[in-house]
Amino acid sequence: MEKEKLSADLKGLVGETSLSDRTWNDYLEQSVIPHLPSEEDKIGDYLGKHAIALKSINGQLNNEVATRVNDFKKNYKPVAVNSEQSTVDNPDKSVQHADNEKLTDLETRLQRFEKVEAEKKAAKAKTEKLTEVKKLMQKEGSTNETVIGLILPQLKIREDLTAEDLAKAGKTLYDKAYTDLYGETYVPAFGGNSTLGSQKGDKDAYMKHLKETGRIK
């Protein structure tokens, strides 16, 4: 007879039991199966005897548990709780306050960190876009590094503007700045190096011009 069917038949005879599954399986494997009759007509009586034994064991177990519970109730002495001490249902307010302060501090630090990271990300994106704009402007002949260095910071970077849009606006500013620096007779795009002083002098002069005309502060 299969172990599963044997177990089911025996449980049907014993009824409700407090024995754990592990104890039940151990009893089945060590006490029932090794001596199981080979004749089918004798198995019923054999299981009946084990059912009686298991009922007795279960009864003794239940009685022992009940006795221990009663003894515990008789001997149990509740521990007096000081009214000033905190309880599970009413935690100390100072502890709650400290926890709230820690949480607030963590949230503040997290927000600060996220702000710094966002600023770093925005600065990196701006630098990358301006680098691309500079390359596009140079392809169009805007090759004077001094003028480009003056123009790029004036460009308004927006998400809706592509590098091509900014390069086009930058080219217009570049030509205007070049004319202001080197005069109208000089062709800005595809022009050579200036002979009207050093680049630093050109830059200082142009910055002064921008301030005087109110284009920058």
TrEMBL record:
The keyword Coiled coil applies. Residues 106-140 form a coiled coil. Keywords: Coiled coil. This is Minor structural protein GP20. It comes from Dysgonomonas alginatilytica.
